[in-house]
């Protein structure tokens, strides 16, 4: 068991939240009971995830995608009202870390994805932040585009959308989880063979062809499952808590 304020203070320092200009607040978003014994983690604070946390008897829901996004409607109506009402009625806290959880060099989404795919980290590429979350690395052995697709499917449980940009084998890769297709051209400056992200745009097809770089869209949700679980497990070890991860079947 631990105090909520101890957990929040530890996470805020670990995630270096003061170094990010984000699209949402990082840290405690909804305050519940002061004592925490069980954490449930999920990628997104959806109604399904909140309901699962309540059913599991959690004191704290830890997510990557929380509430109160920049430019969203601030009124508490419809689905947002129902989500927050469920949290408050069950005295369940919501703790969310967005860009800080993408960037963390050990437990972040990108670090975890690189480890999962057995990519050796080499350097960062610039994402316009004091703590960049774009990664560049090398595979331990060269793969064809189809072989890399198979590896992603094996590790993430889904085949990526693969846009071939060349016919050579792939060794050097840049990656950035989630909706990071907009960094494709920046990542390409690092002499890479392939770029992996979560989502894809219409222009991404043309960029892959014209840059001569393979692009793999592996799913926003699928690429961002792992950071929140790693953070939760770190809290389990430090504060003697229990933890369950809620898997939501999200094909995006």
Explain this structure to me?
- Strand 4, helix 2 and strand 5 form a beta-alpha-beta unit.
- The protein has helices spanning 4-14, 47-55, 78-89, 99-103, 109-116, 145-156, 184-188, 202-211, 220-223, 226-239; strands spanning 2-3, 27-30, 35-36, 38-44, 60-65, 93-96, 119-125, 134-143, 161-163, 170-176, 194-197, 214-217, 242-245.
- Helix 2 (47-55) packs parallel to helix 3 (78-89) and helix 5 packs across helix 10 (226-239).
- It folds into 2 domains: 2-97, 3-Layer(aba) Sandwich (Udp-n-acetylmuramoylalanyl-d-glutamate--2,6- Diaminopimelate Ligase, Chain: A, domain 1); 103-223, Udp-n-acetylmuramoylalanyl-d-glutamate--2,6- Diaminopimelate Ligase, Chain: A, domain 1 (3-Layer(aba) Sandwich), CATH 3.40.1390.
- By secondary structure, it is α/β, with parallel strands linked by helices.
- The protein has a 6-stranded mixed sheet with strand order 7-8-10-11-12-9. A 5-stranded mixed sheet has the order 2-6-5-4-13, sandwiched between helices. Strands 1-3 form a two-stranded antiparallel ribbon.
- The model has no long low-confidence stretch (mean pLDDT 97).
